[in-house]
């Protein structure tokens, strides 16, 4: 049973690229809402939200991955994720779909000693004509 869950991913977009997070790490996908800023927080931490009585820290995934900032719009979503008892919200440009990616269609991430952002990548999924960057959630949630 866990074999099936292991290769299902929630796929979303940042800019023109597709990214994926294992579905078993995703709690919910929410529309954007008012955030409370945290003074002196890291630039990629957009603040916190109150989601059904739980305070959730929001991470702007674009900023975390050193991408150009983008204004929040009607397509923007918060993907609530949980990893090793850390619960956080990832702000993404748009949520796309749930996709199954067979293990044989997942390549190892590119390697480079100079680019620490590559540590955020668990692998590259190939589905039809699309490449999906599979994120290493434990690294993404590090401050």
TrEMBL record:
Signal peptide: none annotated. InterPro entries: CheW, CheW-lke_dom. Residues 6-143 form the CheW-like domain. Pfam families: CheW. It comes from the Bacteria. This is Chemotaxis protein CheW. It comes from Tissierella carlieri.
